[in-house]
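Researcher: Next sequence.
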Amino acid sequence: MNFTRWSARLPGTQRRAAARTEQTASPDRRGEGSVPAARAERLTDESPFVPVVDELRVREVLDRVPSLVALVHGPDHRIAYVNDAYTTAFGVRPLGERAREALPELDALGLFPLLDQVQRSGKPRTVKSRKAPDGRSYTFTCTPVAQGDGKGGSDGRGVLVFATDVTDHAEAAERLRASERRQRETAVTLQRSLLPQELEQPDDLRIAATYHPGGTEAAVGGDWYDVITLGGGRTALVIGDVMGRGVRAAAVMGQLRTAVRAYARLDLPPHEVLQLLDGLAAEIDANQIATCAYAIHDPNEGKLIYSSAGHLPILVRDENGTVLRADEPTGPPLGTGGWMHASGSIPLAPGSTAVLYTDGLVERRDADLDEGIAALERALAGATGTPQVVCDRLVRSAGVTPDHDDDVAVLVLQHPARTGADGELFRNAALELLGGVEAAPRARAFASGVLTSWRFPADLHDLGVLATSELVANSLQHGTPPMRLRLRRTDRRLIIEVTDGDDHLPRRRRAEPGDESGRGIAIVATIASNWGCRRTPGGGKAVWCEFALPRTQTT
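Model: Next structure:
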């Protein structure tokens, strides 16, 4: 093959040719003072001979380079040349044959459309790190080459294929990607292990949650959620977000979540729980702040009592599809200190759905936060189905993808409207305790009649009446009016609760043999599945106990 018929149309060729012309002509102008004579003699006598590029034998250069080189020409890409490195890698290739048949390795790499494009456009193209059939990875650069004067159009135009072996780099990059994937999987596993492995499912609510880690980095976030059954039919719901990313944020999140569960067992109002968390957050790390919303659902109240520490508003869709936003009150984030949090309420009647979420669901760099919340409200207004279905729909409507740049946590709860046979399993009865000592026998008679109408077995009926008697007697002795007895049954348990106007909480204590009192709470704690007490928002207290129902009573 005559290589002098082909010339690479590379940038700068004309400039280098012009420079060589000037260098050749320079000796005639030395007398003009452009170069000192002594300097010229030294260059001539002492410098080694350096040939210009045009004097090099191109084929000898290409034959010896370690990279793979092939030259194809014409519209059907017939082979004009392959160098020794190419032959060593893929074997001897016959000259003059069509490349599609004679160079199957290029076809396997999908390079022929690229060759066509380079030949048509006359512009070089590069594809990086393609794995060839020999198992090695190459970066291919395809450069247009013109024959003769370069005026032959596409028929007289060829393509020089230059392939550099980048196997080591590709394998190192793949090892790095695999390491990053393992680190991310470990980080996400850590994050998920700090979240509830299984959500508690209260009697009166249906709940689902979802968590999506943000981005593809190994840094985990500090988003969390939780559901805590408080007893007496009440449920605490928590959502929070520790600012920043990384293991430190996740560690702070884990400590705050554990603290919330501990404080929730005290059955405190939401604002008091956040007040305790605020001080704890400052002690854990003064440089870390977190937002948090803590809410309590009481099925007898028909609303959510909540408090917010800089967190996004809770959204509630009623049974008619109207969405309400719990905007106030909202205090500063946890860890800032010096703020008295307050509690608010939002209706959650039967048939309603509430959503608690973190900012990753609604915050976007190119949009205002209020726009994101408004979009979520619209999505919630049309979201129906189970809590898990609502969760998935809200996440999809927000455009959350695996490469989303922020963590997303969503907690959805529904207070279902129960009718028919299902409604028979959820019943309430209440009695105002008026008068003096006669209130106790009246409460026992009321409890006996209610439990009989609910068709409880004799043993559970008698235990319920006994627990009612002890709780009422305790309230009459140590409490103040107004007093109220409330009985509630669900599909899983019987709940008995007595409220009065005194805020002194009873405690279980060991009565001495000669004591005539002090055994009421001990009796209740012995016969009931669970018991507890709490202060009520308006002043006073509530003392409750619950009995697990046998399976025959829950069907």
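Model: Residues 1-5, 7-43 have pLDDT under 50 and may be disordered. The first strand starts at residue 6 and ends at 8.
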